[in-house]
Amino acid sequence: MHIMVCIKQVPATSQVEVDERTGVLKRDGSAAKINPYDLYALEAALKLREETDGRVDVISMGPPQAKAALLEALHIGADAGYLLTDRRFAGSDVLATARALCAGILACGRYDLILCGKQTTDGDTAQVGPEVAELLGIEHASYVQRLTADSQAVVAEINMGEGTLVQRIPFPCLLTVEKDINTPRLPSYRRSLTMDEQQITVRTLGDLAADDPRLYGLSGSPTQVERIFPPEAQTGRVYWTGTAEQIADQAYALLAARKYI
Amino acid sequence: MPALQIHQEMLSPQTAAALIQLCPFGALSMENGRLEINAACKMCRLCVKRGPAGVMEIVEDEVAQQPADLSDWNGIAVYAQQVRGEIAPVVPELLGKARQLAGVVRAPVYALLIGHGMGEQARRLLHFGADTVYVYDDPLLSDFRVLPYAAVFEDMIRRVKPSAVLVGATNLGRSLAPRVAARFATGLTADCTRLEMKPNGDLVQIRPAFGGNIMAQIITPKHRPQFCTVRYKVFPTPCPEAPHGRIQPMAIEPERLRCGTTVLEHRPKDVEADITDADAVVVVGRGIKSQRDLALAQKLADALGAQLACTRPLVENGWFNPKRQVGLSGRTIAPRLLVTLGVSGAVQFTAAIRGAETVLAINNDPDAPIFEAAQVGMVGDLYAVVPMLLEKIRLHAEEACQIG
Ligand SMILES: Cc1cc2nc3c(=O)[nH]c(=O)nc-3n(C[C@H](O)[C@H](O)[C@H](O)COP(=O)(O)OP(=O)(O)OC[C@H]3O[C@@H](n4cnc5c(N)ncnc54)[C@H](O)[C@@H]3O)c2cc1C
Ligand SMILES: Nc1ncnc2c1ncn2[C@@H]1O[C@H](COP(=O)(O)O)[C@@H](O)[C@H]1O
């Protein structure tokens, strides 16, 4: 079985702070890591490889630094990595990202199964996976919490929120996996000695059989960010300080007055 | 389409370094002595607004003309998700919002109902203000399979041509909406927390972005339909009204409903108490020092008839089931009463409590951002305040018994 896992490099800190005075986003260095949700997709792929004997590739669209994320995936267990990087990918929204990944995956060969994380910690849309599936013209399921496969299809247990849906989906297909589907393994020291950047292929937009460059990056993005602004605070607040006793008294009075107790 | 342009001639090593530092996404770097933009760029335009004047520029397309056929698209469609004969609770909220948005441009509100044997559900949708309910009823649609559902969605959009489509950000909606949006090569904005309509028909979609510390206002100016997803409890449920609309049964060729996927089983989840619907919620954060101390919070929750919930770090360290996490990556809640204990109030958290009626926050740090989101801020040590409050509630209950 040939499996492709889509991974994204995201900022290592979740705390993007806004400077009160200037309104500028403060970045805590430029440390980056693999989107934690993608580690579950990678682990699911490695488990399937153990059972069925196949290969696991990883692909990412991002800046040149994203090579580090692919390298880490190789050290965890992937066989080969593909980095899609090009200035013309800048400003990609969900659709443009999905187009790049779709073209990138097609350029790598044929895959039975494509796995994605359920969402990213920076984009946080959970939409890229299903859009890639649509562009590839294959079936998909999101929020897969258990997974088995035979030579023709996967049986996926899908978390629907209100219940669980079990589907048999024939190859080729794309799945986005839930966080609790498995426990991701750590990078292996042994693999870090043998796997290096040689196993990573870097491709630009020009290397892809891309129909029209205008469909990628900013110009290929239907959504536009009109403006960004800090979240607003609510008004009409009261603020109690004092001893614990005083505070508890006031709290009690308020809860009683509003009939919460 | 606008593009970012760098005026290299205006750059000095200092301004270049400042710009590289300024970009929150690491999208600017020096390559062969030139400042370049890479694929990490999110077009946030901070470099234009805050960077050295004149270096970074937004160049708008000269032919910024809209394709003529935008005006063919009219009305706001709501995907009326139903499961086993129940309309998802987010649907009335979306219909209420759609009514409001449609008022701005005097457009109709449509509901799309997909399934099999849905009985009275279409009629219910009329009570929430739908002008037309399009109903696709077919045995092949009884369980959710993404391709047949997408085929139906596509069919409705091609025939009705709504200008905007609102979908609940349920697991089903988040699987289906991107599939359909990609089919129309249009934009999709996830988890909007505010929606507005411009008089020209552009849907203004506002959502927390970049990890949640900032709000992004997003439009889809040149594509239709404009797709967005919205979570449950972000908008209020409208009051049912006398129906004025109509129900329109729709037919689609059965071949378009066939796909390789088969449903083996669909089992409902065990009904357990859910924090999303709770009337009162007590949320604990990292101010609680050990798992043992959760008993204190549980006591308060019991006294208030509240569900106990938590912030993300407490799920991460295994003290709580993820279903009890409040926040952007957890549940959105809108209780009448919300008490937070030792919660700092990160935006990823407060984004999900906007619908709460009364928020009481206990935190020992007077500068904690939670006080911005709370109507009542209590600056104090939760380990001192909560036991005292419990004691007062207990005393009062005893008094009440004696009188009664
Ligand atoms: C994409 C993304 C999604 C996220 N989603 C979520 C989410 O869904 N939900 C969520 O909660 N977080 C989420 N986070 C994390 C969020 O940014 C915060 O890290 C988190 O909410 C902080 O939790 P906390 O308030 O419990 O802990 P802390 O920030 O550590 O705050 C603890 C607070 O307790 C106070 N305290 C300490 N001791 C006492 C005492 N004795 N008495 C009173 N007060 C005391 C402290 O002053 C402090 O303010 C997300 C982050 C990202 C990047
Ligand atoms: N730039 C990218 N490169 C590779 N995979 C991506 C990229 N962006 C998103 N993905 C995949 O799509 C999933 C959902 O991402 P998102 O829609 O951003 O929440 C992620 O977990 C990844 O598997």
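^ flavin-adenine dinucleotide complex. The longest strand of chain A covers residues 139-149. Chain A is about 25% helix and 30% strand.
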